[in-house]
Amino acid sequence: MISSSVFDYVNVLNKAADAAWLRNETIANNIANQSTPGYKRQDVDFESALKQALQSSGYRTMDGKVAHIRSSVLDVDTYTDHGDYSYRLDGNNVDPDTEYVELASNQIRYQALIDSVNQEFALLSAAMK
Most CB atoms closer than 10 Å: which of 43, 75, 104, 128? Predict the structure, then answer.
């Protein structure tokens, strides 16, 4: 984690990209376990952590909110979806079609986050010239 206010957005984008990568791995794990009896799908919820961090900040501008986010509040992990619904009689709640759609969507999100980080560094590089 870079500790300069110049890199506030880069740090948040980095955490978001890490969460998107973890979500890709989690969705791939769900797909791999689609035939495992009793398996419950897992997911990652970075968006809620970011929303809570931004709302808890008393600052009025987005720059101020992002500058005062502690990186530790954006560390997310997988959670298990223990919903009562199941697509199979054996209790497995993985819907492969939904997982493939989520995987494609998340891969696009991940690529957009990486592009955003690259753009931030390009802006910083242009400002230094």
Answer: 43
